[in-house]
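User: Can you predict the 3D structure for this chain?
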Amino acid sequence: MSTTVPSTVVPRYTGTLVDGEWGEPRTRRTFDDLEPATGRRLAAVAAAGPEDVDLAVAAATRAFRTSGWARANPTERGQVLFRLAQLVRERAEELALLEAADVGKLLADARAEVELSASLLEYYAGAANKVLGETYQAGPGKLAYTLIEPLGVVAAIVPWNYPLPLAVLKVAPALAMGNTVVLKPAEEAPLSALLLGQLALEAGLAPGVLNVVPGLGEEAGQALIDHRDVAMIAFTGSTEVGRKVMHAAAERIAKVELELGGKSPHVVFPDADLGELTRHVALGLFKNAGQDCCAGSRVLVHGDIFAEVAERLKEAAEAQKLGDPLRDEGVTMGPLISQRQRERVHSYTTGALADGGSLLTGGRALVEGFPEGSTFYAPTLFSGARPDMRIFQEEVFGPVGVIVPFQDEEEAVQLANQVPYGLAAAVWTNDLSTAHRVAANIQAGMVWVNEYYAHVMEMPFGGFKQSGTGKDYSLHALSSYCQIKEVTVRLSPPA
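Assistant: Here is the predicted structure, written as structure tokens:
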């Protein structure tokens, strides 16, 4: 048994954080936040509604106008973010336990995500005073310059698969640029975002600069994206909901930043290192139980090595050890987030079988030997998937992949691009020319060669096509959270 004592995972903050104060929602309702590995209730969390969102946006609006945050020296804003990063590190184990229990992920992964969150806060703290305007001598007696200004109230709406780092990816650059924020965490995993709100207060953030409103997406989330006083919506989630966000923003011409779904391919050539390939494909398919927008769920393999790769990946899938990440030793994959998500994932399996796909392994919910109410699903691989099948085209968001053969480079690129998404991709070859050529032709915002999940925070993260607009990570993210004003001055002639 693990030395971790998960029963101590007791969230301290489960209400709404508005204008620096914790309180009950005006709805007087809560929802149960369940631990997917056991089915037990972790907490009863405030179910904020439209009135709570109104109060939060009003608090953020007042703070933007009166707190001085928007007009503070950027270095001073950075100092607050540095203090917040320090507090995140001081409470790292508490945050990691909350994250692991709430999502059902490996504790080692949760700890790494907390460290990433602290590093992101430090990165944007240091970037706060690096965004500078421009000057231009427009002619004799004229000077033109630009001002970089915050937008106002930013609505940050984040999903449940990486709750803390995805919240920080919105909150940190928004605050660095002088905005105020209303953060709406996912109802499936809100606990670490709520603690982040408390730590922000302890770091010295003025009341109202960061507000947190947990609640259901169709109530609190919808009210937030529809709110007339929200200047920008920063959203990470499904492409389906992203369309609704964009539509709501269009009604009032609000700014949007969308990081949406993916259906990422591995493109595997005959000269690939199959040992490394197997390890990285298994990571891309089964990390976080496949609940990842970058999941490498389409493995496109040259026909000469297709049979060998399929057998290697089948063995890797069947070698995964499923169990409670906080209580069982040696676990490599945890549960799906909810019963609803497991049903959704299984519908893709049954649909693929009905469409003529060949099931190599998995394809079932795991019940026997697992706690009642838990949500485990077997690692699943299909061969024989055609490009017109849903399992080839659509994001499953679970531990389900397809292995598809190709005969030449042209066909490989065509298959890679034959989906509506374009988030990430990997190319596996030892030929430098092939690697560069294929990477250039794949329609994806990120292409990794001979590895997977190779992203670093100093580089832009985001996709093409229906995978979203704008960029997270890097200095590029800051441009989403500001606006540029031109000022031209006619100077008085010398006396």
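The radius of gyration is 24 Å. The chain has two domains: 6-260+469-484, 265-456.
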